[in-house]
Specification:
Chain B is α+β, with helices and mostly antiparallel strands. Chain B contains nine helices and seven strands, in the order E-E-H-E-E-E-E-E-H-H-H-H-H-H-H-H. Chain B is 33% helix and 16% strand. Chain B has a five-stranded mixed beta sheet. Chain D has one domain: 3 helical TM bundles of succinate and fumarate reductases. Classes of the chains: A mainly alpha (120), B alpha+beta (236), C alpha/beta (578), D mainly alpha (124). Bound molecules: flavin-adenine dinucleotide, protoporphyrin IX containing FE, iron/sulfur cluster, FE3-S4 cluster and FE2/S2 (inorganic) cluster (FES).
């Protein structure tokens, strides 16, 4: 009947903390983003405007941080959910790989957008 | 005081006869201030002797009688009928645990998990002739957490446990808090290593069901939050 | 039935029956001495009734005021109305200091004084603040800490196992037979030493502060094996039980200055104990309350008086008596800040029990001859530490200290002793009881019998006793026992059969109640908790002695030749005045 | 012994805390869905002005404007409840978690109403 409930020696502490740090960052960035793009410009966003903005390295840095935190936060969140509901080791590993692949692809596509736009 | 008619539905399960639990209905007259336990006793003594449940102290201190009534975990012995406005009671065993019979659930894992977090002082310093010195303030850090009667109402109410029965659960994490934050203890590192785990503290998503369920009104979530910060400080 | 028919046969050096403070403390001691130990308990250890103790644990630490073991000894002896054995009390007061420090080192969270020491509060009958406490949950933290220590030392627990019979033959204990409540089936525990620590017997009364589990099982089993019980007539009634429920409201309510009033709003204690008023000892206050009720001054003519805390004010109640307020709010929907709480005396503590010597070995006659390998401690035992009346906070201390002493004597015994052979057909006794209930075709139910017993015990053997009442009860109990023979239960299953357990417990209630009644009838004096309206005076000349009682085929046999041990030069009996 | 396995016990009485958690989880998932689309759409920036501007025009249709109102709500809920969680984690928020919840949600609601008003009044 002796049972060991301990699953791994790997900690969840880092993920927990980073989830909160990225959340605070996102809170600021996301709301600013929404206000600028969805209210002030009222959705009438032109290709040229963005290319213009992208010339500022500070703006680019912000975009980069936004992309990084959003993808990290979102997919770390999903990983938490998987950990909650999926106990089967194999399925877990499968899902974890999927999450990693999707997250990295998205990050890659985002980076591509930033780089190419900057170089236009 | 005046009596009133109430109707009661109890989730019954007898492993020697039934494949799965089923509802049985009972009608009886109860006084306004009867407790749920009074009602269960009434049923068992006068209507159906085969109803099983746990109880002992009937004064909310032993932790035997936690069950789910109208969708919420309570101690049967301290919960009066008038707490539920409807004159209908729906009584079930604690969710998230396996049912042994009727309202009796298997608490072995619950206690095993408690054992897991080393629930005893770990001393590396030498023991004094008299008592260890501890200030009233240091005592008050843990005085709320030691109120826990290990009734299991919290752990059973936690949605994280429903989906993952291996989750240590709020009760044992609270116990970990009680020792980690006891100034006499030297075992913080060992215990942090145990709860810093996929089935440990990180399954707590501050859902607060535990706190709502706790008959001793312990602010469990606060202590778990303090623990999380402590674990983070110690492992990063 | 043969051994092979048991569901399981366990062979363990020492078996502890009961996981309250006494049982767990003994188990811990054995485990620390590397003895193999198994604890059998019918409820999970942390559910034992020791956890209900609120006020504190007595020890003369002198942390907040002058105190000494000598003074503790005097208070205990006087409290016992001189029926306590003074050698036991002397051992107790000296060892109790160690017990508390040990508890502290195990991690018990005691409330603290400003300079970081264990805090102590005053308690009824103690002449110095001596009760070490943890808020109002002292028993709870002690019990949990002990359980956790037992986990640390890998004590083996048989949770939800109920002992159904003792295996005693030729005055040697060979083990016990227990019913597995969860899965059904009888288990044999073959052991060198057995400790009986099954707690009190307050459940024989209707209005009681005791848990459902406090049915004095081992007392019934002792009687069944033709062994005696001691001083069973002494049952303590606590003055502040919640009306109708009997649930205990802590003595602290009076300590903090609560009033007790009758239907005219009068603080009637001035007629009974003008000096101490509400703070007079428990037996005095309980008797006063009962008198008011009998004379028609109960609230609205009901069997209750009022505990009035309103004058203490909101902040004091919230700070010092949160539990009292919560209990009254939860159970009778009364907020003591705004209204008085209806209370009545409630059966609280059993001074009597299984007789034992200072090494906690169970004795079988007035000469102190022992049953080899059988021990007892805690409320189930009668050493006699509390005599005719125990002082608050002395009982958890007694359970813990003599639990440890039991552990010490047992491990000494198990180290050298060997396994005695089992008796032939060890399961018979237990199986018979079960078959009678499960296969029985009688028409009686156990619940009404129990109710009748409890109601009548409260009525006829309550706070005031007299010959006429007790004779009625004596007849009554025969009737009830007769009825019990016709009991059949509804639940025929094996798994968690509460019906079976309660029916079995009723048998014990009936058995020890019978000897209790006889003991009370015979003791023609008033001493401590035993008060007879027909003999209202203490009678040292004839009754400075213990009662030993046996249940025989022909009825109860009493023996009063066991003398109380008294150091006549140090603590000669005097009148008990407060 | 009867084993009951449930992802969520729907018959359990739900308190503020558990509703907040469920909605937080669902809104988080919705946001992932959105952000994936978003990153993918914005990628058309790299495919020249015509393509990007047509898509932007398409997204300016009333249907997408209403969806945007919903999205704004989801974001605000998730963001403000997220702040609540952080207050609980680090700033003793558990003592008043319900009050904090209602306060933050009230702020979020005002922001949502204002934002939605702007969006809807600008539908062309
Ligand atoms: C409400 C209340 C408040 C109190 N407050 C105080 C206080 O403030 N200070 C103080 O000093 N004292 C107090 N007392 C008294 C004190 O708590 C008890 O006397 C003491 O705790 C008894 O301990 P124990 O170990 O003997 O028995 P318990 O703690 O009663 O334990 C009995 C054990 O025996 C087991 N058991 C019983 N029968 C069987 C069986 N057949 N088979 C297997 N197991 C069995 C049970 O499962 C249980 O584990 C209080 C008592 C009550 C009722
Ligand atoms: C606006 C700022 C945001 C804040 C303040 C915020 C805050 C948080 C916090 C604190 C958590 C952790 C919850 C927990 O551990 O219980 C969390 C979880 C999560 N977040 Fe966010 N978040 C924000 C934006 C986003 C975005 C943009 C996404 C989508 C990409 C997202 C997706 C998720 C997901 C999927 C989870 C996991 C949900 C769960 O575990 O229940 N969040 N969020
Ligand atoms: S924390 Fe509260 S609900 Fe949980 S086990 Fe302890 S007393 Fe019961
Ligand atoms: S309900 Fe569960 S998720 Fe955490 S706050 Fe309580 S343990
Ligand atoms: S019976 Fe002890 S807590 Fe309810």
């Amino acid at each position: 009947m002796k049972k060991n409930f301990k699953e791994t020696s790997k900690s969840g502490a880092r993920g927990w903390l980073l989830q909160r740090i990225s959340a605070v960052t996102l809170f600021v960035l996301l709301i600013l983003h929404f206000i600028t793009y969805h209210f002030i410009s009222m959705g009438i966003i032109k290709h040229v405007d963005i290319v213009e903005k992208m010339k500022s390295p500070w703006f680019n840095l912000l975009q980069f941080i936004f992309l990084l935190t959003a993808v990290y936060h979102g997919f770390n969140g999903i990983w938490t959910i998987v950990e909650d509901y999926i106990q089967m080791k194999l399925i877990r590993i499968g899902l974890f790989s999927t999450i990693l692949i999707v997250a990295f692809s998205l990050f890659f596509i985002g980076m591509l957008t930033i780089f190419k736009t900057v170089n236009l | 005081m005046s009596k009133q008619k109430i109707s009661i539905k109890i989730l019954r399960y007898n492993p020697e006869k039934d494949n799965k639990p089923h509802w049985s209905s009972y009608q009886l007259e109860a006084e306004h201030d009867s407790t749920i336990l009074d009602i269960l006793n009434e049923i068992r003594w006068n209507i159906d002797g085969s109803l099983s449940y746990r109880r002992s102290c009937r004064s909310a201190i032993c932790g035997s009688c936690a069950i789910k009534v109208n969708g919420q975990n309570v101690l049967a012995c301290e919960t009066p009928v008038h707490k539920f406005k409807a004159k209908k009671l729906k009584i079930e065993p604690l969710p998230g645990f396996r049912i042994i019979k009727d309202l009796v659930v298997d608490m072995d894992n619950f206690f095993e998990k408690l054992k897991q977090i080393k629930p005893f002082l770990i001393l590396k310093k030498s023991i004094p002739d008299k008592e260890f010195s501890q200030s009233p303030e240091q005592f008050s850090d843990i005085s709320e957490s030691v109120l826990c009667i290990l009734c299991g109402a919290c752990t059973s109410s936690c949605p994280s446990l429903w989906s993952n029965p291996e989750y240590l659960g709020p009760a044992s994490l609270l116990k970990a808090y009680r020792f980690i934050f006891d100034t006499r203890d030297d075992g913080a590192i060992e215990r942090i290593d145990i709860i810093n785990d996929k089935n440990g503290i990180w399954r707590c998503h501050t859902i607060f069901n535990c706190m709502e369920a706790c008959p001793k009104n312990i602010n469990i979530t606060e202590f778990l939050s303090k623990l999380k910060v402590k674990v983070v400080e110690n492992s990063i | 039935m043969k051994i092979e028919e048991a569901k399981h046969y366990h062979r363990i050096d020492a078996v502890i029956v009961g996981a309250g403070l006494a049982g767990l403390r003994a188990a811990l001691e054995l485990a620390k001495n590397n003895q193999e130990v198994g604890v059998i308990t019918k409820v999970y250890p942390t559910r034992s009734h020791s956890g209900a103790a609120q006020g504190g644990i007595a020890a003369a630490l002198a942390n907040v005021a002058e105190d000494s073991p000598e003074l503790h000894m005097f208070d205990t002896i006087k409290g016992s109305d001189y029926l306590g054995d003074q050698d036991v009390i002397e051992l107790f007061v000296n060892e109790s200091i160690k017990t508390v420090y040990e508890f502290e080192h195990m991690g018990v969270p005691f409330s603290r004084t400003g300079d970081g020491k264990i805090n102590q509060r005053p308690f009824g009958g103690h002449s110095s603040p001596r009760a070490c406490f943890s808020a109002d949950i002292t028993g709870h933290v002690l019990l949990h800490t002990l359980y956790e220590q037992c986990l640390k030392y890998q004590v083996h627990f048989f949770n939800e196992f109920q002992v159904f019979s003792l295996l005693i033959k030729d005055n040697i204990s060979r083990g016990v037979v227990a019913w597995d409540i969860r899965n059904g089936g009888l288990h044999i525990f073959h052991s060198k030493a057995v400790l009986l620590a099954t707690g009190g017997y307050g459940r024989a009364f209707k209005i009681s502060s005791n848990a459902f589990a406090n049915t004095g099982d081992s007392l019934g089993l002792i009687l069944e094996n033709h062994l005696p019980l001691e001083d069973m007539e002494f049952v303590q009634f606590h003055p502040t039980g919640l009306y109708k429920h009997g649930i205990l409201l802590s003595e602290a309510a009076r300590g903090e200055g609560g009033y007790i009033t009758n239907n005219e709003g009068e603080r009637f204690m001035k007629h009974y104990a003008a000096e101490k008023m509400e703070l007079a000892p428990r037996d005095v206050v309980s008797r006063a309350e009962q008198t008011e009720i009998i004379e028609g001054r109960g609230i609205n003519g009901k069997a209750c008086v009022h505990l009035d805390l309103r004058h203490l004010g909101h902040s004091k109640i919230m700070e010092r008596l949160p539990q009292v307020r919560e209990l009254a709010l939860n159970y009778i929907n009364t907020d003591c800040i705004k209204e008085p709480i209806p209370i009545q005396p409630t059966a609280h503590y059993s001074m009597g029990g299984i007789p034992a010597n200072t090494k906690t070995e169970v004795i079988r006659n007035v000469n102190g001859e022992i049953i080899k390998g059988l021990y007892t401690a805690g409320e189930a035992s009668c050493l006699s530490l509390h005599g005719a009346n125990r002082l608050g906070t002395n009982s958890v201390q007694g359970a813990a200290t003599f639990g440890r002493i039991a552990g010490e004597s047992m491990s000494e015994f198990t180290k050298s002793g060997s396994y005695e052979s089992l008796i032939p057909d060890p399961l018979d006794q237990a199986q018979k009881k079960i078959s009678q209930l499960i296969d029985g075709t009688g028409k009686e139910k156990h619940a009404p019998i129990r109710e009748e017993l409890q109601e009548n015990m409260t009525r006829y053997l309550g706070i005031f006793r007299n010959e006429k009442d007790m004779l009625i009860m004596k007849k009554k109990i025969k009737e009830l026992q007769e009825k019990y023979r016709q009991v059949a239960i509804d639940d025929k299953g094996e798994v968690f059969n509460l019906d079976l357990i309660e029916a079995f417990e009723l048998r014990n209630l009936l058995d020890f109640s019978e000897v209790l009644i006889e003991g009370a009838l015979a003791r023609r004096e008033s001493r401590g908790a035993h008060y007879r309206t027909d003999f209202p005076k203490r009678d040292d000349e004839h009754w400075l002695k213990h009662t030993l009682s046996w249940k025989t085929e022909t009825g109860v046999k009493l023996d009063h030749s066991k003398k109380v041990i008294i150091y006549w030069d140090r603590f000669p009996p005097q009148e008990r005045k407060y | 012994m009867y084993k009951r396995t449930k992802i969520y016990d729907l018959s359990y009485h739900n308190f503020i805390g558990s509703w907040a958690w469920i909605l937080h989880r669902l809104s988080g998932l919705a946001l992932i869905f959105y952000i994936t689309l978003h990153i993918w759409v914005i990628n058309t920036l790299t495919q020249g002005p015509e393509k990007f501007d047509t898509i932007m025009n398409f997204l300016n249709s009333p249907l997408f404007k209403y969806l945007e109102v919903g999205l704004w709500g989801i974001i605000l809920f998730h963001a403000f409840n997220g702040v609540r969680i952080i207050i609980v984690d680090f700033f003793k928020g558990s003592f008043a978690q319900k009050k904090i919840f209602f306060l933050l949600i009230a702020i979020a609601f005002i922001m949502w109403a204002t934002g939605s008003y702007i969006i809807i009044t600008h539908i062309n």
